[in-house]
C-alpha cells in the first residue's frame, strides 16, 4: 500500500538436503543415514558372514553399502534414482570393493531379485508393505532381512494379540516369518530428517514355509479385521460378508458338480477374486452399507456360517485378541464346511 513499509521477504531455505552435491527428495522417501555408529550397529545386528551375498535396497550414496562390503562377500544394491546409481559407482570405482558391488537400477517392486543370503536396507517407507511380502515370497530362501521401517509400521509387524497396533499385517507377517524389533532410531539420524521416528526390524522366514493358500488366508484375514474389536459373530452377520461367502460356496459346489464329486482336486482351487474389493492395507472398513442381517434373514447359509463360529467357540471373540493358531483353526473349520474366502 502507498505510504506503507516495504517488507523484505526472507529467502526460503532450500527444501532439499545435500550430500556430495546430490539433493535428496523427501517425497521419494530419500532419507540417508548419517550416523556412523548407528550404521555399524545395524550391520553388527544383522549377523553378516564373510561368505554372504547381501541385498541392499535403496543404497543412496553408499554409507551403509560400504560397511556391508566390509562385512560380506558381495553386495547387490537395487536403486531407482539414476543420480544415486552414478554416485554409488563413482564412490567405489577403483577401490578393492568395486568388483564385489553389483548395482541394479530399477524399481525393486518390479525387479526380479537374484539369490541372496541376507537383506539389509533403509527403504523408502511408502513401499514397506509390498516390499516386505515380496521378500517373504521370494522363490529362493534367505536367512534374514534387517530393515529400517517407519516406527509405527515396525510396531505393527511385531505386535502381539491384545496390543493396540495388532492388525492383519501382524498376523500375516508372523505366519511367514519370525519378527523381532532390534532398535529404535530417532529422526535426527537421517539427512534430511523424516517427520517420524524409525525402527530396525529383523525378519527371519519360517522354514519350512506354512502350507496355506495365500489368497485364501489373506481373504479370510481381511474379513476378520473389518473391525478388529467387533465380535466375529457380528462381522460374519454382515450382509456383504455373507453374500461374498455364499457366492464362493455356490461357485465351489458348481465346480464339484462338474467334476462329478471329485473333491481332491477342487478343495484347493482358487475361486477368483471374491474379497469384496477391500483395499490392500490395514485400515478398518467403514460400516456404511455393512448392515447385519436380521435373525430371520440369510437362511440356511447364514446358519451354516454361524454354526462354524459356535463350533469353535469364536462367535463372541474378537480378532484383536486372537492368536495366529486361533485364526488357522477357524479357517480350517470354515474350509471343512466348504466355506472359502478366495
Automatic annotation (TrEMBL):
GO molecular function: RNA binding; rRNA (adenine-N6,N6-)-dimethyltransferase activity
Binding site for S-adenosyl-L-methionine: 31, 33, 58, 79, 107, 122
NCBIfam families: ksgA
Native source organism of the sequence: Brassica campestris (Field mustard)
Annotated EC: 2.1.1.-
Protein name according to UniProt: rRNA adenine N(6)-methyltransferase
GO BP of this protein: rRNA methylation
Keywords noted in UniProt: Methyltransferase, RNA-binding, rRNA processing, S-adenosyl-L-methionine, Transferase
Annotated GO CC locations: nucleolus
Gene3D superfamilies the record matches: 1.10.8.480, Vaccinia Virus protein VP39
Domain Ribosomal RNA adenine methylase transferase N-terminal: from-to ranges: 38-207
Family matches, as Pfam families: RrnaAD (PF00398)
UniProt superkingdom: Eukaryota
Cited InterPro entries: KsgA/Erm (IPR001737), rRNA_Ade_Mease_Trfase_CS (IPR020596), rRNA_Ade_methylase_Trfase_N (IPR020598), rRNA_adenine_dimethylase (IPR011530), SAM-dependent_MTases_sf (IPR029063)
Family according to the record: Belongs to the class I-like SAM-binding methyltransferase superfamily. rRNA adenine N(6)-methyltransferase family.
Amino acid at each position: 500500500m502507498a505510504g506503507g513499509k516495504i517488507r523484505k521477504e526472507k529467502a526460503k531455505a532450500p527444501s532439499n538436503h545435500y550430500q556430495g552435491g546430490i539433493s535428496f527428495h523427501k517425497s521419494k522417501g530419500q532419507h540417508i543415514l548419517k550416523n556412523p555408529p548407528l550404521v555399524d550397529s545395524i550391520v553388527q545386528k544383522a549377523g553378516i558372514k564373510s561368505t554372504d551375498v547381501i541385498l541392499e535396497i535403496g543404497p543412496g550414496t553408499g554409507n551403509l553399502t560400504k560397511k556391508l562390503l566390509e562385512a560380506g562377500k558381495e553386495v547387490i544394491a537395487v536403486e531407482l534414482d539414476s543420480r544415486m546409481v552414478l554416485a554409488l559407482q563413482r564412490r567405489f570405482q577403483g577401490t578393492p570393493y568395486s568388483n564385489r558391488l553389483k548395482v541394479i537400477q530399477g524399481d525393486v517392486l518390479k525387479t526380479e531379485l537374484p539369490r541372496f543370503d541376507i537383506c539389509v536396507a533403509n527403504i523408502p517407507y511408502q513401499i514397506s508393505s509390498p516390499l516386505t511380502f515380496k521378500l517373504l515370497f521370494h522363490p529362493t530362501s534367505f536367512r534374514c532381512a534387517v530393515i529400517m521401517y517407519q516406527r509405527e509400521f515396525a510396531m505393527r509387524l511385531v505386535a502381539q494379540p491384545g496390543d493396540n497396533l495388532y492388525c492383519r499385517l501382524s498376523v500375516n507377517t508372523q505366519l511367514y516369518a519370525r519378527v523381532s524389533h532390534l532398535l529404535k532410531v530417532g529422526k535426527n539420524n537421517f539427512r534430511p530428517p523424516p517427520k517420524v521416528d524409525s525402527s530396525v526390524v529383523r525378519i527371519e522366514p519360517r522354514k519350512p514355509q506354512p502350507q496355506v493358500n495365500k489368497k485364501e488366508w489373506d481373504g479370510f484375514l481381511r474379513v476378520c479385521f473389518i473391525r478388529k474389536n467387533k465380535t466375529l459373530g457380528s462381522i460374519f452377520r454382515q450382509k456383504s460378508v455373507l453374500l461374498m461367502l455364499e457366492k464362493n460356496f455356490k461357485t465351489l459346489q458348481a465346480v464339484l458338480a462338474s467334476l462329478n464329486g471329485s473333491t481332491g482336486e477342487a478343495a484347493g482351487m482358487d475361486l477368483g477374486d471374491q474379497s469384496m474389493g477391500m483395499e490392500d492395507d490395514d485400515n478398518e472398513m467403514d460400516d456404511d452399507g455393512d448392515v447385519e442381517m436380521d435373525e430371520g434373514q440369510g437362511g440356511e447359509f447364514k446358519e451354516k456360517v454361524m454354526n462354524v463360529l459356535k463350533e469353535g467357540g469364536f462367535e463372541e471373540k474378537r480378532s484383536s485378541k486372537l492368536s495366529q493358531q486361533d485364526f488357522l483353526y477357524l479357517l480350517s473349520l470354515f474350509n471343512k464346511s466348504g466355506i472359502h474366502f478366495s
